[in-house]
Specification:
By secondary structure, the chain is mainly alpha-helical. It has two domains: 87 residues; 244 residues, Growth Hormone, Chain: A (Up-down Bundle). Helices cover 68% and strands 0% of the residues. The protein contains 14 helices and no strands. Helix 11 packs antiparallel against helix 13. InterPro entries: MFS_trans_sf. One of its GO terms (molecular function) is transmembrane transporter activity. Keywords: Membrane, Transmembrane, Transmembrane helix.
Length: 374
Amino acid sequence: MNIPFGLIAILTITNLWPHEEVAHFFSWRAFVSIDFLGSATLLASSGFLVFAIQQAGSETFAWGSPEIISALAISGVSWFLFVWWEVYLETKPKPMRNIEPIFPIRLMLRRVYSAGLLVTLFTGFPYISLSIIIPERFQIVSRQEVLMAGVHILPMLGACAVGSFLGGAISSRRNNTSLTLVGASCLQLLGVGLMSMLTEPDSHTKSQYAFQAIFGLGVGLSFSAATIMTSILAAERSELASAQGAVAQARVLGGCIGLSSCTVIFNSHVNEYLKNYLTPTQLDSLHRSPLTSLQLAGSLQALVKDVYADAFAEEIKIMMLVCSVMVIISLFSLERNPAPLERLTAFPKDDFSSRRGSESATEMTDVSSIRRSV
């Protein structure tokens, strides 16, 4: 379903977007300004971490296997090198002054931005996880078809879109991003907490759609507030792209860790309760994908149904814990005198140019454009 709508959006943007002059975008100066080492270490650190958790959780490799240990070691070393390199670039030694850091270490020293970044990381954990495990639950526990299982998460996705719009509207006249972030975190905790009522295998209540909507509204408000907050706090326009990129990366990384955690929880339940009922081949298939249970015999499907329901309840408890921590972190974004919205348009035109050669006016310059982008 995404392909036709995505194609329409791409064609519309390609043909109707105003023509812009981008100076020196493919110049040598723009090329040497790319932070290749930072990009490589960031990719390796997050990629190998998710690989290790996912592969070990699905029992493709054992936790103590050389593959998993090597992946975790590479991830740890890459994280260290990434932080060291970005701090080193921040000092701007003369030979490195042309390189644009991929991660805004300077902004990380600001309490409000750090809180917004961490809230985004923790938001991605339950949001992306629920986008997967709720349809899975409808297929495995409620015996729904694939298409209908996806339809059942529309309340969450629709509320997320509404929240993204409301987040911009709330800060259209005054910088209320910190308050929005706190409220969004509380809504997510409330929504996930209410979902904990769905503990029994046959618990299929209409109220769960309201729970999804509450959670989705919090997610949308959180994403939009973090986007606007980042645009306001970026001290220079050259920092804006990397600052927004860090927020987007945090969202995806949190989601990957969340999905990996759900895989670990489900497989631990499978090993504990189904090991004596399934063959090694069936166990291996189930470790890789819970949906393979739909190909088992009816009696075995009933067993997997009960196990998946129990695992789902435990996954929700973990998400409640994550959302609780998120609420606490969001409180650190509060300011007595938040930065004014005028900072979005306070930069002189020349400052819009970064050494990446991005002199495009496509960067967000007012709140309304931000609202359209989230």
